[in-house]
Design goal:
The structure holds 2 protein chains of 2 kinds. Chain A is mostly helical. Chain A has 2 domains: 55 residues, no CATH class; 238 residues, MetI-like (MetI-like fold, Orthogonal Bundle). Chain A is built from 13 helices and 2 strands. In chain A, strand 1 and strand 2 form a beta hairpin. In chain A, helix 1 packs antiparallel against helix 13. The longest helix of chain A has 41 residues. Chain A is flat, with a radius of gyration of 26 Å. The two termini of chain A are 46 Å apart. Chain B is an alpha/beta fold. Chain B folds into 2 domains: 206 residues, D-Maltodextrin-Binding Protein, domain 2, CATH 3.40.190; 207 residues, Periplasmic binding protein-like II (D-Maltodextrin-Binding Protein, domain 2). Helices cover 48% and strands 14% of the residues of chain B. In chain B, the strands form 5 sheets. Chain B has a 5-stranded mixed β-sheet. Chain B has a 3-stranded antiparallel β-sheet with strand order 10-7-11. A two-stranded antiparallel sheet of chain B has the order 4-5. In chain B, strand 8 and strand 9 form a beta hairpin. The relative contact order of chain B is 0.15. The chains are: A mainly alpha, B alpha/beta. At the A-B interface, helix 12 of A face helix 3, helix 11, helix 17 and helix 18 of B.
């Protein structure tokens, strides 16, 4: 028997009139059964590697050892409290906020600028688009290794060129006042080209006739941008902002490669803090608690953005 | 069409499953063991390790060892711990020598005493093969938990050409901090306020920074930690204060050392490019310097203020806890083979680390190598004054509390005295649970 024959299932015949809620539910289930079947493979893997792991984190976050040889015992929310009281965590959150805003805003602005400049498709623009997209193709770890040499104090590429202009050469990754911004530059360089793609796609969707009408009505380039293009790009903005913020939390490869959170914790981001708790401190309880807090924040953010998007679609 | 594709898929999956099930059933012949190994220096080591294990398997038909590359020292610790938790520990691991104590506290190591006794030898005799400086990181509570595999000490590297240019004799390297300060001043070149050549570079990034602080503190007569007990570090002490103050003076008083925290690779690049005339760096970088320096260089002992003393670095071979008897025996055979004089000497020449087995330096190949590369001898000679690498309960976080503060000092944001007091306080806090269970658990 083929799995693609849900009509053969006996469920549909058993429903009595007063159970019409159940019947409706079962009918709906029957109708969407093939969809569930199609989803099954990815659900299995999501359950194994995502939801299973999340469940485990939830449990681990509730247990702690008092001393190294003591057994694990249930501590409730103590781990979460100790994470929130840890200056290492709050420092990482503050760094992460600066990092998120400081990478999202410039990279989105640059991406929009690139997209507007290269919106028309011809050979030169295609080549330029490819050039701007190139950083996306370089793995973050490789890019970080490259930038490690660019940022080398005194002898690196950057100091070699701007060294002639500055009286004192900055130690890009060794000075706690500068290191986080050095890290941010890489993120902006790497992500702007990626976000440009979304804006290019968004620009394709700006209705041609509206633009033409505006042109005929004598609207200048700025007016067209301000009153037609930007409003049409709103969903793209929203989407790209969410992606940029998620990236700011989840993409920390360069912190691992270049600074390990240093100097003096100035580039420690939340994900790196979790890694340190789990690996260096070998404190699974605290690492899990910090993971839970991060997950909650990210899920809240995602839910909010999806709702905003759904509202917009429903309203239009 | 759909049906047949599903059938094919099903058959393929069944085949894979059957294959997976059949493998353990057939594993009757040699004992199969895994060796986890990190590559802390460069990619070539992975190939050398492959060569070494292949030779072992060819000469030991009863054992089939597989070398598993596990990333950095830190990654190797993570992967080993994950494997232990999953109930499938590797039979042997090349582990950073200062992680052993922490693993022993967590009950993650196999005590090697009984295996040594089963060979009909004594602990003293077994450890006697290795340089005495290396034994401190291998022995915990009088039991052997690790076998030294490759090791290093910090060295002073000098650009001999620049020294001659400045009127200094590279054959008489600085022996004291006073002499070193003097050399660094003479080797620093300025154009107005701008420094075009630094006198000296000392690395400070996580891991390296703590090691260099231990080096300077030891040369200043002090100790970094309690070698007998994992619950104490000595950050807020006169010897460490002197060490950090001198480092701070090199940066801000004498202005012969670049400000800020500079990681190891940046220091070696700076030295190779002639931007720094001297540097303190591991013997592990000797091969790199030898291959890349386009100038004459000299290596020397780390200069002293109070005494000549340096810490060791490097890695030991360990066996995780929870191995069955067969795999324990096979792993022990592998470990003894890898740390034998011939193999130890071969690995040393391939990597630049020194060979922990003293007899390695009596093998003909090694005598010839040292004749050609006398600089490799300095590292071995310095071993006479070497002492163990710091290892405490939670070594890495305890070390990091000091490093964060040292970085602030090198960036001119804190004075040495207050920085060390803060580091001591934070370290004591991290060590608290261990002390609660040991030194402060009173009847």
């Amino acid at each position: 028997m083929s799995l693609a024959e849900p009509a053969a299932l006996p469920v549909a015949t058993s429903a009595a009139p007063r159970l019409h809620v159940l019947k409706r539910f079962s009918n709906r289930f029957k109708a969407s059964l093939p969809a569930y079947l199609l989803l099954l493979p990815s659900l299995v893997f999501l359950a194994l590697f995502t939801y299973g792991a999340m469940g485990r984190v939830l449990i681990d976050a509730l247990y702690q050892r008092a001393t190294p040889k003591a057994p694990l015992r249930f501590v409730g929310l103590d781990n979460i409290a100790s994470v929130l009281a840890d200056p290492g965590f709050t420092g990482a959150v503050v760094n992460n906020l600066i990092y998120a805003v400081g990478t999202a805003v410039p990279s989105i602005a640059l991406a929009l600028l690139f997209a507007l400049a290269l919106a028309r498709t011809h050979a030169v623009n295609s080549a330029l688009r490819a050039a701007l997209f190139l950083p996306v193709l370089i793995p973050m770890v490789a890019a970080s290794a490259l930038f490690l040499f660019i940022f080398l104090p005194n002898v690196g590429l950057l100091d070699y060129y701007i060294g002639r202009l500055l009286p004192v050469l900055p130690n890009w990754l060794g000075d706690p006042d500068i290191a986080l911004y050095a890290i941010m530059i890489i993120t902006i360089w790497k992500n702007a080209g990626y976000y440009m793609l979304f804006f290019l796609a968004g620009l394709q969707a700006v209705p041609e006739d509206v633009m033409e009408a505006a042109h005929l009505d004598g609207a200048g380039p700025y007016q067209r941008l301000r009153h037609i293009i930007l409003p049409e790009l709103k969903p793209t903005f929203l989407f790209v902002t969410v992606i940029a913020i998620l990236n700011a939390v989840t993409q920390v490869d360069h912190v691992f490669v270049m600074t390990q959170g240093g100097p003096s914790n100035s580039t420690s981001l939340v994900l790196f803090y979790i890694y340190q708790q789990a690996v260096e401190h070998y404190d699974i309880g605290k690492a899990s608690a910090a993971t839970l807090l991060t997950l909650a924040a990210l899920m809240g953010l995602t839910a909010l953005s999806f709702r905003t998007m759904a509202n917009r679609e429903g309203g239009s | 069409m759909l049906f047949s594709r599903r059938l094919m898929l099903g058959l393929a999956m069944a085949g894979t499953l059957a294959g997976a099930l059949a493998v353990p059933a057939m594993a009757e012949g040699p004992t199969e063991i895994d060796l986890f190994f990190p590559v802390p220096v460069d990619g070539k080591l992975a190939r050398d390790m492959g060569t070494l294990i292949k030779e072992f398997n060819e000469t030991h038909p009863g054992v089939k060892a597989t070398a598993v590359y596990t990333g950095s020292y830190d990654d190797t610790l993570i992967k080993t711990r994950a494997a232990i938790k999953a109930g499938k520990p590797p039979a042997a691991v090349i582990m950073s020598a200062n992680f052993l104590l922490d693993m022993q506290i967590e009950n993650e190591l196999t005590n090697l005493d009984s295996l040594i006794a089963a060979d009909g030898t004594t602990k003293e005799k077994f450890l006697g093969q290795f340089f005495p400086a290396l034994q401190g990181n291998a022995v915990i509570n009088r039991s052997v938990y690790g076998v030294p595999f490759h090791n290093s000490t910090p060295l002073l590297y000098i650009n001999a050409d620049k020294a001659k240019e400045a009127g200094l004799d590279p054959n008489k390297p600085p022996q004291t901090w006073a002499e070193l300060t003097d050399w660094a001043k003479k080797l620093t070149k300025r154009e107005g306020d701008k420094v075009t050549q630094w006198g000296i570079a000392i690395p400070c990034a996580y891991d390296y920074c703590g090691w260099m602080m231990e080096t300077l503190t030891m040369s200043n007569g002090g100790r970094y930690y309690n070698e007998e007990f994992g619950g104490e570090v000595y950050y807020d002490t006169p010897s460490m204060l002197g060490a950090l103050t001198w480092w701070n003076d090199l940066v801000y008083k004498h202005k012969v050392h670049a400000p800020g925290a500079t990681p190891g690779p940046a220091v070696s690049t700076s030295f190779i490019s002639g931007n720094a005339a001297m540097m303190m760096l591991s013997t592990g970088s000797l091969t790199y310097v030898r291959d890349n320096a386009k100038f004459a260089y000299k290596v020397a002992f780390i200069p002293r203020n109070v005494r000549n003393a340096v810490p060791i670095g490097g890695a030991s071979l360990i066996m995780p806890a929870g191995l069955d008897a067969d795999r324990q025996k096979a792993a022990w055979t592998l470990i003894k083979w890898m740390t034998s004089p011939e193999k130890s000497a071969w690995w040393s020449r391939a990597t630049g680390y020194f060979a922990p087995n003293m007899a390695a330096y009596k093998t003909p190949d090694m005598v010839e190598f040292l004749g050609k590369n006398p600089d490799a001898k300095t590292a071995v000679e310095q071993l006479d004054v070497a002492k163990p690498w710091f290892a405490t309960y939670k070594t890495v976080p305890v070390r990091k509390t000091l490093e964060d503060e040292v970085m602030l000092v090198l960036n001119g944001k804190k004075q040495p005295k207050e920085a060390l007091a803060a580091a001591q306080k934070a370290a004591d806090e991290t060590l608290k649970p261990y002390n609660a269970e040991t030194s402060l658990k009173l009847p």
